[in-house]
Amino acid sequence: MTSLLLNLVLALTWGAMTGSFAVENLVIGFAIGFLVLYVAQRRGGRAPYATRVLEVLGFVGFYLWELLLANLRVAHDVLSPRPMSRPGIIAIRLDSRTDAEITLFANLLTMTPGDLSIDVSTDRKVLYVHSLYLFDIEEARAEIEEGFEARVLKVMR
Amino acid sequence: MINLLVAAVVVTGTTFILLAAIGVVRMPDVYTRMQVSTKGASLGAGCVLLAVPVFFGDVAIGVRALLIIIFIFLTTPISAHMLARAAYIVGVPLWEGSVTDELRGRYDRVTGELASPDEEEGPAGTA
């Protein structure tokens, strides 16, 4: 987060130095700042900030793809003559601990394949989710716990 | 060429919104309706808003469109969550075709606290 701010400051500095705050110029400044941070933070062969940016971008791509698949599936469901869904409410064990993690996970989940988060238990151990496609309850549960939540947490931590 | 691309994206977006509207009519209960309307409508609106800056070719419009997309994706899941939770608390029933309801009996009517499933029973056990 601090590195991102630093990168923005570097972009603005670039704009001030070159005397132009046009969007194209700021983008160039941001790219150069990104490279500078990549080189400057490279200790022991690993650049935390750059790697994290790539991780977040990878997650955004994965997420948009899931979003598209979710919508095509729901669209198919809406148009088929007989309802094909098997809805229900299941409990998802939470590995997320902080408010930010739970909020992000629950909201991202609401936007993906047929899931809608309803509430978090008071002791924060469990998230109750309404799901459209419970053909196999345990499988659906595992898919969210081990697949989706693990990916969200990997980006958050 | 660019106009064709813009048209394709806008038509895709409005199709998703139309599907969401049909879904609201066809789905059997509140929860499934929320499912259909939140996802379809936000993706549809996102598509339309993505096409707008390409059509106008203006950075200021592009930045605003991007901001609107971000706000839609920030707020839609929260409102969906609040509506579904409120519906469950006031006792709107699930569709009779629903396979399971692990939330049943978990709310404390007095304190409003929500219990998690008992550990020995395992999360599959329903109350």
What can you see in these coordinates?
The complex is a heterodimer of chains A (157) and B (127). Chain A is mainly alpha-helical and 157 residues long. Chain A has two domains: 39 residues, no CATH class; 109 residues, no CATH class. Chain A contains five helices and three strands. A three-stranded antiparallel β-sheet of chain A has the order 1-3-2, covered by helices on one side. In chain A, β2 and β3 form a beta hairpin. The longest helix of chain A is centred in the middle third of the chain and has 32 residues. The radius of gyration of chain A is 21 Å and the shape is elongated. The N and C termini of chain B lie far apart (59 Å). The longest helix of chain B is centred in the middle third of the chain and has 31 residues. Chain B is elongated. Chain B has a domain of 88 residues. The C terminus of chain B is likely disordered. Chain B has 127 residues and is mostly helical. In chain B, α1 packs antiparallel against α2 and α2 packs antiparallel against α3. Chains A and B meet through α3, β1, α4, β2 and β3 of A and α1, α2 and α3 of B.
Topology of helices and strands:
The complex is a heterodimer of chains A (157) and B (127).
Chain A: H1 2-18, H2 23-40, H3 48-79, E1 88-93, H4 99-110, E2 115-120, E3 126-131, H5 137-156
Antiparallel strand pairs in A: 1-3, 2-3
Helix pairs in contact in A: 1-2, 4-5
Chain B: H1 2-26, H2 30-56, H3 59-89
Helix pairs in contact in B: 1-2, 2-3
Residue-averaged pLDDT of chain A, rounded?
80
Overall pLDDT of chain B, averaged? 80
Overall 3D form of chain A: elongated
Number of helices of chain B: 3
Main β-sheet of chain B: number of strands, strand sense, barrel status?
none
SS elements, strand count of chain A: 3
Radius of gyration of chain A over all CA atoms, rounded: 21 Å
Largest interface: A-B, 43 and 47 residues
Helix-strand string of chain B: HHH
Q: Give me the oligomer status.
A: heterodimer
The H-and-E topology of chain A, N to C, reads as HHHEHEEH
In terms of DSSP E residues, the strand content of chain B is under 5%
- In which order are the strands of the major sheet of chain A placed? 1-3-2
- Number of domains as seen in the coordinates of chain A: 2
